[in-house]
Protein 1
Amino acid sequence: MIRRQHLMLCAWLLAAPLCAAQPDFLRNGAPVSPAAPDPAIVRALRTIDPARIEETIDTLVKFGTRNALTSMETGLPPGQGAAAAADWIEARFREISAQCNGCLEVNRDTFVADSASGGTRAGRIPRPARMTNIYAILRGADPAQARRMVLVTGHYDSINSNVFKSWSDTSGAAPGANDDASGVAVSLECARALSKLRFPASIVFVAVDGEEEGLIGSAHLARLAHDQGWQLEAVLNNDIVGGNTTPGDTLQLKDRVRVFSEGVPVAATEEEARRIRARGEENDSPSRELARAIADTARGYFPASGAAAPLEAFSAFLVFRPDRYGRGGDHSSFNDEGFAAVRFTEWREDYNHQHQNVVFPPAGSSAPILGDLPRFVDFHYVARVARLNAATLATLASAPGEPQKFTMETGRQETATTLHWDAPDGAPATMRYELLWRETSAPDWQYVQTVQPPASGGAVTATLPVSKDNVVFGVRSVDAAGHRSPAVTP
Ligand SMILES: [Zn+2]
């Protein structure tokens, strides 16, 4: 109504400066708003349980150390080390599967890493180590879409500060409660909550090994996904999502999680990178569109206020860089293979509780306790992160795939914009598209216009009286129930 009044005013005043203040991209489309939550997904999210997350993290800590190099050591006490932890994680996935009539395909991806495996971090594998990734697939129920996959992962291996003197030193406790038993707990909780439902596309729940030695487990799994032709559309990496609870830290925030995403894709060829620079597309990698889809999901399921809010308020704080300074994570292994992948990490990290030998100061000392211990993990916070992961996985596995072959006509000099795209593989007949745009300096999509697919279901052409030079265009797929795919850009 406001917009219509404004337009009428413009028509009346004609040359008044107010008319010039109404750009073409505001006269078309509606402001973007969150999708209504899916009641079945909300019910599943409510089953995500902080007590079970605590139990998972406590159990992983009780393996003493989960240093990946312990896998081939013979002198370990029973029930200690990375191999025992891998067996336990596999057993947990099998237990979850038994509760859904065998709905999960539980797999081990085992290989021996040696000094050649670590890439630039080769020195971190001083002797051969058997590495095991565990992954469980909830196969999609729609044969036309089951090849599509979304994946959630955390790393179960851990280290302590002995390694910074010698990577061959695996002695001492390496509890790794936050880094990264918390991420493994997210994968397991997502599997438990979502295995009660069926989705058109497939979901993969993962715990990887060898992160601390140079992303070795995830690199192996990402290569396996590439070699086996997985149609992997989204990778959610959770690493350090414990919501560190150091007493006296007043700067920690528990109502949000950081989501890191790469800009220019690391897997882009020279020619692709040149094109991205030439067109100003540095802010629209598939990983960044995935990050925006996560933020969109959070706004729908976990809004800060309002009667419709069905769950605790929680948001995704998007960080437009691949990772924190000087740090890395398993999402990068998937980026390297050309997949869209992002990293979730708590708001504020405490480096006294990462990669540290466990040290309790003497009584009366004001020195901090060192070590990555469960006492510094907020299990309710991990549950919020798990709910956002699960809501995203469920939304993406329910939504149609992304529109294909999205192109924009740039050959003629004209102020209108013409866009073309194809339907996603296995597109349901009842789907629609949402054409999106935003100002080039805006972080997230601002305006939307619904486009119905042609009756034939094939290629779509849309023309808008909006100048392509002033905005970024995207398009996403939406099913009849409102589940949205990530956007793609031309
Ligand atoms: Zn980590």
Protein 2
Amino acid sequence: MKFYITTPIYYLNDVPHIGHSYTTIAADIMARWKRLKGYDVFFLTGTDEHGAKIVAAAKENGKSPQEFVDEMSEKFKEAWKLLNISNTDFIRTTDERHVKNAQNIIQLLFDKGLIYKKKYTALYCVGCEKFILERDLDENGCCHDHKTKPQLQSEENYFFKLSQFQETLLERILDANHKEHIEIQPIERRNEIVGKLKLGLDDISVSRAALDWGIPVPFDENHTIYVWVDALVSYITAIGYPIEKNNPLTAYWPADIHLMAKDILWFHSVIWPAILIGAGLAAPKKVYSHGFFTIDGDKMSKTIGNVISPQALVDKFGVDAARYLTVSLIPFGPDGDISWSGLNLKYNTDLANNLGNLTSRLNKMLQKYFEGNIPSVKHNAALFEKVEQILNEDFTKEMDAFQIHKASDALQRALTLINQQIENDAPWALAKTDMEKLKECLFSYIQSFDLILLYLFPYMPIISKKIWEINGAQGDLEEIAKDYLANPKKYKDGFSKAGAKLQIAEVLFPRIQ
Ligand SMILES: [Zn+2]
């Protein structure tokens, strides 16, 4: 079973911030989850390095465009390393492999008569790097996203016959049973796309005449490929398509999920599928867009000074907590608000009080009553089965629907269940009256907790393994998780064997005041 997931190929006019991190961590969690479920996963991220905005930003920094993108691209690689992102490949649109492939696709479309030359005069927003229609401007005649007036530009450009694809796209998007169905999520945004599609499609320009910093159009050296078209093609470049027809990686196509923020959904759900269909290739199976978020109620901006970097998140919370908090704080899909106070509160509630507290209290009791060994006892599976139900049903359902904030809620519910059971059983009282019962209780807590760690792994790959070891559980967590998800019955007696020695738990999540 193959599974191909992509983040956007990030545009290099900005350093990586929490917006990029949000999408990339979410994709990483999904990739890790699918690997546990036995999928052969290809996870792509990368950087989009051409276009007028890059030239301007390079100039501002006193660099050549190439020097500038080399440096900026490195910053993204560093950020993903910092956040423990498990991407399979990192594509740069200035990579030789990509340049060839983008030219190949444009040539293919040209040969099929889907590209023609036309003189065009229209409003152009440099911020968006795209032509913009008057009806899409705000009341001041400015671009909604950039709050600047677009400029009238006149150019002779190559156009792609996007207008020909309206029917095909509508059919594939609307019919869930279509064998080449294109699923757009969430449903509200899919409806917006469908509404806009029904109004009809204009052909789009796919080249620039006055811009050198781009990939040359193979059939006209005076033009470069429009940066957006170039960037989208990188999703197939990375898996060796279509230049290397026998490359085994091409089996990953079509992509299972293209993940992105909502502002670029149109490119991914309309323009990109049309280009692919035009070139005789399969369109992506699913395009998933999440919302925008504000920081403490304000739009994130350098001027306001509220930009949150991946480094700042890691410095404050540590890598795993930063990963968990970033994607768990707000619903995945709609717009939301992220604030340091919200992150701190969630850290204290979910991690210090629930996960961290369970780790340490369980550890202390086993150290105190059984000298740090897992007691030998027959497994009373009642609690284990309740936890298993939350994880197998709620967690799995939400995760498979990419509702990662709800899946993290399910993890918290499962942890709370154990913490509550401890309160109900009062092991400290049992220690004085019923040692057999005490053994049974502690044994069932630890097995249930181990089970949660298997599902926590995609969010917190380091901490989950650390607690796994603290708990005296056997084997490599990741391997056990794969085996468990394939054969849950094999593990009905749990993961920490009787007699296993626990490690002494350090404080994993010190409370933030
Ligand atoms: Zn704009």
